[in-house]
Design goal:
single chain; about 425 residues; 16 helices; alpha/beta
Length: about 425
């Protein structure tokens, strides 16, 4: 809507009114002109529109280009108080599956696609703007990753985790799995993690969260990426002493438990960490093993799964090729890096746009695919191995669905070979 300077709402206007479906509270998204050019945004409780002094201070702190006189400023603030929003939206603090909808940081898939959004405050809690970011094309992403995935089962498997994560709810699996890519430096571990993140967001090296994350930061990230994949890179940042190894192990348990640490209810509310817990798959990388302090229990090993990455002299994440004209490992790595640097966040939309409308159908198909995988590769008389194999089966089901939907750089037949190799 075009306005001139005689309109009190020229300087600041009520863009959106949000109703929070969990709490019933209302907030307002105010857009305003900035002194140095451009448009700024401010989210406040709806009641603060009736407090011109407080609202004026908040806008000033964000660089508001206020009206030129005190009287005009007062008129602008009063007009903002009495304005009707340009649009109304419902918001939720629960990402991922939310009834028949799937809520992501950028959009919602399902019947409420036009009216339901993820709470902007939940998104703002994450200082990482990579989540939900989108660039390039699906065609470019597929074309650039096709050859590298042919030569790297680990690369394809890691990308597949991003497609398997939304199936957890459909399969009735409240507990996800963490796949830890462990090996020496420069073997392609982080590159595989970046490729996995590129399914749903920007994936430059600096965009990956690391093991330096705090427990509260990990909780916020897990909630934001609920029913998605959480990635922690560079466990080598820890110095390997007992305290670092123990801290790393605590983060792993917290991530897969799907539950927050116990805290006072007032503290949880202040941090906006109330509400439904998370359900995620995860990929972590590093040189340290997950059992740096000793043996792990059976139950731990089927949830926190360590995958050894071959040393660099054996190709790292890439398999050797007998074809002398085939791209070298360095060329393949560069191909991945260039591709996901300009094409990211485009695959998950195509996947969810097909998955969400046929939620019940995909639940049945997914269970069959998981069962088929475990029947083919596991000792069916060993309950522990079946539980272990099911985690890989979920990845396999996601990879098959993605191939059928034409948003994966592998074929349906190749999906089984990739996952069986890693298993």
């Amino acid at each position: 809507m075009k306005r001139d300077k005689s309109d009190p709402l020229y300087y600041a206007w009520l863009h959106t009114e949000f109703e929070h479906i969990e709490s019933g509270k209302h907030t307002a998204l105010v857009r305003f002109r900035k002194r140095r050019g451009g448009i700024g945004s401010l989210i406040v409780p709806l009641s603060e529109l009736a407090k011109p002094g407080l609202l004026s201070t908040k806008l000033d702190d964000l660089g508001w280009k206020a009206p030129p006189t005190p009287a005009a400023r007062t008129n602008a603030l009063h007009a903002l108080r009495d304005a009707k929003p340009q649009r109304c939206r419902s918001v939720t603090s629960v990402a991922g599956w939310n009834g028949d909808n799937f809520v992501t940081p950028m959009r919602t898939f399902g019947p409420a696609a036009k009216s339901l959004r993820l709470d902007p405050e939940v998104i703002a809690q994450s200082s990482n703007s990579a989540f939900g970011a989108k660039g390039g094309t699906l065609e470019g992403w597929l074309r650039g990753l096709k050859s590298p995935c042919r030569r790297s089962r680990l690369l394809a498997f890691s990308i597949g985790v991003s497609f398997g994560a939304p199936l957890l709810k459909l399969l009735g699996d409240a507990e996800g799995a963490l796949f830890h890519l462990r090996g020496a430096g420069t073997t392609g571990k982080s590159l595989a993690a970046q490729a996995a993140q590129s399914v749903s967001g920007r994936a430059n090296p600096s965009d990956l969260e690391t093991w330096d994350i705090t427990p509260t930061g990990l909780e916020e990230l897990s909630r934001l990426m609920r029913d998605g994949v959480v990635i922690l890179d560079e466990s080598g940042r820890n110095d390997g002493d007992a305290d670092s190894a123990a801290g790393m192990r605590r983060l792993v348990f917290q991530l897969i438990s799907g539950r927050s640490r116990r805290r006072h209810s007032g503290t949880a509310a202040a941090l906006n960490l109330t509400g439904e817990a998370w359900r995620n798959m995860a990929i972590t990388t590093g040189e340290l093993p997950l059992n740096a302090n000793g043996q792990r229990r059976d139950g731990e090993q089927v949830r926190h799964i360590e995958i050894p990455v071959p040393p660099r002299k054996e190709g790292g994440i890439f398999l050797p090729s007998k074809n002398s004209r085939a791209p070298k490992n360095g060329e393949l790595a560069k191909m991945v890096s260039v591709t996901i640097g300009s094409n990211f966040g485009v695959a998950i939309g195509a996947f969810l746009a097909t998955l969400v409308p046929d939620k019940a159908g995909y639940a049945l198909q997914s269970e069959k695919l998981v069962s088929d995988f475990t029947q083919r590769v596991c000792d069916i008389d060993d309950p522990l191995e079946l539980r272990f194999g099911r985690k890989f089966g979920i990845d396999y089901a996601g990879m098959v669905h993605a191939a059928r939907i034409c948003c994966a750089p592998w074929t349906e037949e190749a999906a089984f070979r990739h996952v069986r190799y890693v298993y």
